[in-house]
Amino acid sequence: MATSAEAPTPPQAHPATPASPQPPGTPGPRPRRRRPSWAGLWFVLPFVACYALFLLWPSLTMFVDSFTNRSLAGGETSWVGLDNWATVLTDPAMWQSLWITLLFTLISVPPLVILGLALALLTDHARRAGWFLRLSFFAPFVLPVAVMTEIWGFMYQPGFGIINQYLGALGLPQPEWLGSENTVLIAIVIATVWWTVGFNFVLYLAALQGIPRETYDAASIDGSGAWQRIWHVTLPQLRRTTVLVIVLQMIASLRIFDQAYLLGGHFGGPNFASRTIIHYVYETGFVNFQIGMASAMAWVFFVIIGLISVFQFRLLTRNED
Amino acid sequence: MRDASPTQPGSGLARRGFLKSSFVLAGLGLAACTPADAVLDTRVRLRQWNLFSGGDGNRMIQMHEDFQAQHPDLDFRATTFEWGAPFYTKVAMAAAGGRAADVATVHLSRLASLAPGRLLDPVDEGLLAEAGIDASVFLPNVWEQCFHDGQLYAIPLDTHTHIQYFNPEICAEAGLLDGDGRLTEVNGLEEFLDMCREIAQVTGDMAVSLDTTYSWPIFWAMFRQQDGELSFTDDDFHLDDEAAYTAFEALYRLSEEGLAPRFADGQGATSNFDNLQAGLLLQGNWEIASFEATGTPYSATQMPNFFGNRRTRGDAHCFVLPHQENRDRDRTRAALTYAAWMVRNSLSWGEGGGHIPAYQPVVRSEEYQPLEPHVHYAEAAANTEFEPEAWFSGSASQLQSEAAAALNGIHAGTATPKDALHQFRRSLRSLVTTPAPV
User: Fold this and answer.
1) Under an 8 A CB cutoff, do A267 and B213 touch?
2) Is A300 within 8 Å of A87 (Cβ atoms)?
3) Which CATH superfamily hosts domain B15-157+316-377?
4) Which of B215, B210, B219 shows the shortest CA–CA distance to B269?
5) How far is the alpha carbon of B430 from chain A, nearest alpha carbon, in Å?
6) Chain B residue nearest residue A261, CA to CA
7) Cβ–Cβ of B405/A288 closer than 8 Å?
8) Which of A107, A255, A112, A111 is nearest to A183 (CA)?
9) What mean pLDDT comes out for the span A77-105?
């Protein structure tokens, strides 16, 4: 950046005279002067290479594929112009699965953030049982998704599942959970909250422990009660963590696939009420072999996520200042 | 942080030493990737993929153990994937990359959708004959379905169908068994519903359990019992609306009256029967294996006569050779030896998996005839109705996925038979207008 100000100097002058601009009077054996060093590049190369090979390159080929009728089954591939894009944008099933993904995000983010915070506050206050609470709240997070969905799939079973058994014993209505299109998404959200709230909990707990104790002492001396301390000291101090948690949670929720696919079944049932956009892309590309169509769909989703991210970033960074 | 360290003479050496040792370690690591036994092994490698994650999976594993014991010259390894799309996507992707397993089991109804010639390699009839299998050992109509564009692509293993299981104790209590302990035959939907009501009184719960996430086979049985026609042309379809509506309505009434579950997946449907919450179960013949394992009292018979006959939905399992870029003749020969062995020894498959062997010498054999409860649904093979051929049709296909979606609402009570018919027609329209990817 510094060189750009000295426009008249030929650019190669600097690298040719590495040690000359050393300020006079600086002793010591460190002839450290900005020599274009490639060392940094080598450090980031493993990441950049993987990123380019497994993300950038596939995304670009996918973009090209989205203008073809390419099939996973091989055969002749030809250009179809904007046909795939037109089909995708007018496909009600695509919009339905996109809506399900957004709905899942809208329903799952608030409880995951608020519950994570509540559990962290609880653990922070419960000094004695702290280790036990930390273990209990975080333990589900280490379960593989297949195990988690197996457990919840059993619990949700009508007839012999444990949840409806207790609901019945309490005289409450017994929903079909995974069996009805009205409740399947709620059921997936409940299982997801139980499974992943531990991650947000840990982030909040770490942030809580970083709040200086003196601020609480000062607040106490000023006569504030426990709730006031939480409201006026703890929460403002957690603002940056909250931004981080919300951003991470939005991303995690938008890319929902595994637990919905495993709990809702291969068909995204009932009546496609659990078929998320990634599931639909997978179905189009790999079950029905329409790689061109699936590529266009994935790009539509990419653009939407991009827009959401930009919006979110601007909203949150503006508050930051 | 100490500034002395960069000039220390030892550190450079240490770094070099470290680099050297890491290269050695890396080399060892790479060597470890190739197991020593594979390097020294002179046996012919044979890799098999299958989708038997249901009750019949254990029997397949037993058969594979026997096969390996009798063929010590083969390095045989089988992998079971989850039934349905998870299996088919893997076969397709591996074959698209030209590095698939040597032999795989698929549904015969999916042959057309797997792009024979591109994702599947043809079977050399000469090599197969060397392994002792030719057209003469199968029923002609089954053998014909294994061909595509005049070339053989599949070796049939079995026919499997949806049948009717019943709990003899519950049905006896409901007074529905005859002198031989067989379930009273019903004639028509109303009689079937009456029978269900009597069973429900005994169980105090439902009468007939079924997989509501995948009730297409029962819908198809009901549809075909009424001679319903579904056919596809290039960009159009024909569906008998009346027959489809009647079938949707029958399933709707079963769930609405509480005689069938509102929601049960494959496992759940079997569990309802195991837990004595239902006296009947409409499910594929492969569940025999799981009832043998759990010890649930059961017997079986054909699909009930809902609409004047006992037609049922069925399919067939077969062996195929997924596409390999560099096909090795020895491994291909081993794959066909394997397929031929499995077909010839399918008595075990029929006995333990409940499937009806495709290999006629087994079906005609004296060992097969007295098998219980197989003998009671042996005629189901003749009553088996396949789906029309299309790239989106067959087991675990998009057609079934769309049909399942329409049927979910029927069972849950959120859609009327009219809604379901409307939705199904719309799905069919969308499927036929999609350009075929194969």
Assistant:
1) yes
2) no
3) Periplasmic binding protein-like II (3.40.190.10)
4) B210
5) 10
6) B86
7) no
8) A107
9) 96
Q: What is the overall mean pLDDT for chain A?
A: 88
Which helix (H) or strand (E) covers residue B75, if one does? Answer: strand B74-80
Contact between B409 and A44 (Cβ < 8 Å): no
Q: Could you state, in order of their start, the residue ranges of all structural domains in chain B?
A: 15-157+316-377, 164-314+397-432
- The domain made up of B164-314+397-432 has a fold known as D-Maltodextrin-Binding Protein; domain 2 (3.40.190)
Interface A:B, Cβ pairs < 8 A: 118
pLDDT tens-digit profile of B338-354?
Answer: 999 999 999 999 999 99
Q: Which of A72, A73, A176 sits opposite B412 (nearest CB)?
A: A176
Partner residue opposite A181 with nearest CB, options B86, B115, B414 = B414
Query: How does pLDDT run across B121-144, given as a tens digit for each residue?
Result: 999 999 999 999 999 999 998 899
Three-class DSSP category at B164: strand
User: Are the CB atoms for B408 and B420 separated by under 8 Å?
Assistant: no
Q: Are B383 and B393 in contact (CB under 8 A)?
A: no
> Would you call B405 and A270 a contact, using CB atoms and an 8 Å cutoff?
yes
**Pairing mode, if any, of strands B44-50 and B103-107?**
parallel
Contacts of A283 in chain B (CB under 8 A): 85, 398, 401
Confidence band of A28 (pLDDT split at 50, 70, 90): low
B276, with CB counted inside 10 A (0-12, 13-18, 19+), is middle
Which residues does chain B have within 8 Å of residue A182's beta carbon, measured at their own beta carbons? 414
Backbone angles phi, psi at A173, to 5 degrees: -65, 150
> Looking at this protein, which amino acid is placed at residue A96?
Q
CA dihedral of residues A313, A315, A319, A320 (deg, nearest 10): 0
- Kindly determine whether residue A287 and residue B392, on different chains, have CB atoms separated by under 8 Å: no
Is the omega angle on the peptide bond into residue A27 within 30 degrees of 0, that is, cis?
no
Is a pLDDT exceeding 80 seen at residue B27? no
* Distances from the Cα of B252 to the Cα of A173, A255, B67, B246, angstroms: 22, 35, 46, 10
A95-287: CATH topology: MetI-like fold (1.10.3720)
| All structural domains of chain A with their residue ranges | 95-287
CB contact under 8 A, B405 and A287: no
| Nearest chain A CA: its distance from B387 CA (Å) | 18
What are the residues whose beta carbons fall under 8 Å from the beta carbon of B11, sequence distance 6 or more? B5
